[in-house]
Specification:
Blueprint lengths: L2 H25 L2 H7 L6 H18 L5 H19 L1 H6 L1 H14 L4 H33 L4 H33 L9 H18 L10 E14 L2 E5 L5 E5 L2 E14 L5 E6 L2 E13 L2 E7 L7
Parallel strand pairs: 1-7, 3-5
Antiparallel strand pairs: 1-4, 2-3, 5-6, 6-7
Amino acid sequence: MKSEGVIGAVRFLLALPLVVLMARLLLSINPLVRYLSLAAFSPEKIIYALLFIAVFYLTFEGRSIGKLATLVYLSYFAYLVLTVSPFVHTAFPQSQKGFVQLIGKYLTMTPKEAFLSMPLLLLISIADDYLLFLQNRGASLSSLGVPEGDVWEVVYPSLITFALAVVFSLVLFTWVLGYVKSRTLHLGSLGYFLPALLLIALGTSISLGLWERRRAERTVVVIKTRVPLGKGGSYRLEWGDEPLLIVNPGEKAEERELMIVRRAEKAPKFVKLAVGEKRDVLRRVKESVDGDNLFVLYSNLPPKEI
């Protein structure tokens, strides 16, 4: 089974709590519920069906669900700032009363529900972005002709380590939830090791790049491939949203390694290659940061030659 399919299924399962949280948010909006009540189906069925379709499409089309989770997170955050923020209450006491009355008229969700949902939304956002990275990495290796067993050797350790980090994060979330609700969570002897395990999970998450530690100021695109070039041969790179490398082999062409380096505003998804009548695609296979530069490598060569 291909790694990108397995990771896509994991991403879909991870998105199911997001569907529930989004549905709860939408079902708490009174005008929306009243409008959907006019339909043949109940508002719950309509909202859940639309959200499942959207999440399924985003997951298996290789789109980010983490951005959607972040949007819901920011909606909860704005709601809490307007309703229970001490800053807003101190700076604008009369305005906050008006906000609370207006929000209470159109929104039935309580601040406690929003507060308890935010850690889970943050976890989903971080987790999905990293799983999408692993999914694209596996797809890139497969497109280069790497055997599926070798692809799993690259993806599997990262996936397992990541899963452990998520599990430890969920344990922490459950413990905090129990504390907030004034309940004691009995972990037995595991409680002695929990702080150390959480530190390991946090360090692993950072080392895997779940949080970007530094944003590069410049993007440098590196194109590496092997093409036939001979007497009178030439090549040129036409830059755009989908860059095209055109190669004219010339006479008595022999296969040679070609490397092109150029700066770009942003890295494209792929680079097209045209050698005479033949067409190929150079996919993004590697990224690295050196100082202020983000180097992005595009190639169709086997991994051992990159």
